[in-house]
């Protein structure tokens, strides 16, 4: 079965007009009724960096998680953000973007990779105290425009460091949509074999014509955890001016049905969530 993380946070974070807090809450509550494994709902970062998500605490207060099997994930950019997220026990996962590109790490979090790894270590200790789990996204994992090193060997070096720290969930992330089957397959094949105790996920960005080959390559190489966003909206606002979109959740569901790995979802709730998705994004 495919395990899906729905990422409205990634769809919303770079949206040019502020999405009203009430609309965010309604949309996220609709998604919670669908039955995804995880909901990447918001981030605790500087409102100067991501003004669209300045209301994450208020949004969280409006979410009805009592009747949902879906677990919440919040993204942070530093230890301070993680400490804020840790104050909310309804958040199960704390996600941190660790770039294999030194240039992008500085651009994304204003820290070096060495400093970021120190944050990862401290956040891992924090999660051990609170009972939450850290998810580390290895961003720029399939290429970058800066000339920095990347590839399966680099991803392996970073994973080894994360393994030493006790990180149990790692998402290989295609921040700019540069991945191809030729780069996706070896990365997942080698890492899933070398670190069977780590849960690897795929956070892939794509164009409308390349989604299937990317999903297929990751799936065939042993990855069964995927991030998506309904409609394929969004991307990383720190990465580039022109963005490829997130992996559309609809396409992930199509693929899962084709290979007999469809998750059990509330289809009526999914229709309601899609209606909210179109109201928020397609109407602007």
Automatic annotation (TrEMBL):
InterPro entries: Aldolase_TIM, HMGL, PYR_CT. One of its GO terms (biological process) is ketone body biosynthetic process. Signal peptide: none annotated. Transmembrane segments: none annotated. Residues 1-271 form the Pyruvate carboxyltransferase domain. SUPFAM superfamilies: Aldolase. Its EC number is 4.1.3.4. PANTHER family: HYDROXYMETHYLGLUTARYL-COA LYASE (PTHR42738:SF7). It is an enzyme of class 4 (lyase). GO terms for molecular function: hydroxymethylglutaryl-CoA lyase activity; metal ion binding. It comes from Hymenobacter swuensis DY53. The keyword Protein biosynthesis does not apply. This is Hydroxymethylglutaryl-CoA lyase. Keywords: Lyase, Metal-binding. Belongs to the HMG-CoA lyase family. The keyword Lyase applies.
């Amino acid at each position: 079965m495919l395990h899906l993380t729905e990422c409205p946070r990634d769809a919303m974070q770079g949206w040019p007009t502020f999405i009203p807090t009430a609309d965010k809450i309604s949309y996220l509550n609709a998604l919670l009724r669908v039955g995804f494994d995880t909901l990447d709902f918001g981030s605790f970062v500087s409102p100067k960096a991501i003004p669209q998500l300045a209301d994450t605490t208020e949004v969280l207060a409006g979410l009805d998680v009592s009747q949902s099997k879906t677990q919440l994930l919040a993204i942070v950019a530093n230890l301070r953000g993680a400490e804020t997220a840790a104050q909310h026990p309804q958040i199960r996962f704390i996600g941190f973007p660790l770039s294999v590109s030194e240039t992008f790490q500085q651009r994304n979090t204003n820290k070096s990779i060495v400093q970021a790894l120190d944050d990862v270590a401290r956040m891992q200790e924090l999660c051990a105290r609170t009972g939450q789990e850290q998810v580390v996204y290895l961003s720029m994992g399939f290429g970058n425009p800066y000339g920095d090193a990347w590839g399966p060997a680099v991803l392996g070096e970073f994973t080894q460091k994360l393994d030493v720290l006790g990180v149990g969930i790692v998402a290989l992330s295609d921040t700019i949509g540069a991945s191809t089957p030729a780069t996706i397959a070896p990365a997942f094949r080698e890492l899933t074999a070398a670190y069977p105790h780590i849960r690897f996920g795929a956070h892939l960005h794509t164009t409308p014509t390349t989604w299937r080959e990317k999903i297929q390559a990751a799936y065939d190489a042993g990855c069964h955890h995927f991030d998506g966003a309904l409609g394929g909206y969004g991307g990383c606002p720190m990465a580039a001016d022109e963005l490829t979109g997130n992996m559309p959740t609809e396409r992930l569901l199509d693929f899962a049905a084709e290979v007999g790995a469809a998750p059990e979802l509330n289809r009526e709730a999914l229709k309601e969530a899609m209606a909210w998705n179109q109201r928020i994004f397609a109407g602007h």
